[in-house]
Amino acid sequence: MNEAADFLSRAQAILRGNDTGGFTKPSLKQYPHQWNWDSAIIALGLSYFDLPRAYTEIRSLLRGQWDDGMLPHVIYDPVPSDYFPGPAFWKTDGRPITPGVRTSGITQPPLLATVLRLIHNRQPSLDFLREVYPAVLRWHRWMHTCRDADGSGLFCIIHPWESGTDDSPRWLRVMDNITPQNVPGFHRGDTIHVTQAERPHDADYLRFIHLIDVFRRNQYVPQRLLAHSPFLVQDVLFNAILYRADRDLKELAGILNEPAGEIDGWLEQMQVNFDQRFWDERDGLYYDFDICSGSPIRVNTGMTFMPLYAGIPDPQRAARLIEHHWQVPSEYAPDTLTRYMLPSTSKSEPLWDARRYWRGPVWILLNWMLADGLQQYGRDDLAEALEHDSLELMARSGFREYYDPRDGSACGATEFSWSAALAIVMSANKTPRQD
Ligand code: GLC
To answer: What is the total count of domains within the chain?
Structure first.
């Protein structure tokens, strides 16, 4: 078997190995349940070699949809595990409409509509689209109505975990203003299989759990969550993914001859408000916005480039992002300290940490979205370099959760599904290189 075929078969073996039959675990030990945006990307990877199994992944994700349209961030495998927090802690029983499915009580970035469009473009199936479209539309409607905190049409996250970038330094100042009170006793499960040095600090973790306690005390009623959550943030990453997903949902509506007026309305509102809310003209960066303090969160992370994936910035702003930040060695570009793109946090940030979760390591999912964004702006050179780095990291260090941008060594969970899925997607037209 040649090197490229061996690489692909190793990636497929990870997805097969993490497969429960109905859904794919992100990683057998560290994440033994079904995660929302992981499953969307896993389905995309599966579609390259087992389309029926990709459909099953999506169907099983949609089993967790709540009656109000929310698609939860975790759907629990009934098989008990050492993962914390489990469904008993969330106290969400009775909410999902599918009998027997237990879930968390928050959502995650909406990659699903985009993935459906990508799969349909390569392997069209009107029957499958028709089957799942109504549920995806209901999730988007929930995002645009139940979490619009200020009438801007922008989605408001109520927990760092909703951003998918759980431990990002973007959240620290907001988290500092939260005082955990009467937090029920718990034991962390996330440091059993991965060293504490690569996971969140205890003080942050206590706040994560405190927030869940606030939500369950408010019985997950959307208006009450917006009124009582001490963490209310309009997140650049989430909203960029949502905008892109709305665009893709509109395409799906067109394919199915479904009315798209409602989706047009969401897109128009976001077009008007996105840059106004997030773009910082002085720094030339996109910043998240803290609703509680009414101010931008001035932390420079890789999420500032995500609007490229959404196709939002005008060409001048895109060029400014790329030339004044992406290509600057003291922030993101390779230098004597780092070799691999893209560090998830700017090296100029005081809390930059090469191996800790979202504070510096390279994530394959971010790279995949950003390569797509760079291509949309005609920067195929940078997109190719990013994909090259991603494939090289995986070929050298395995399919891991994240990678140290200094030497490419592996961190976090092992046999990580979305890395394997994206290895398949990225190498569809390429051969991985090792030097
Ligand atoms: C971590 C990541 C999150 C991901 C989950 C499962 O919590 O921060 O984005 O969905 O792991 O892989």
So the answer is: 1
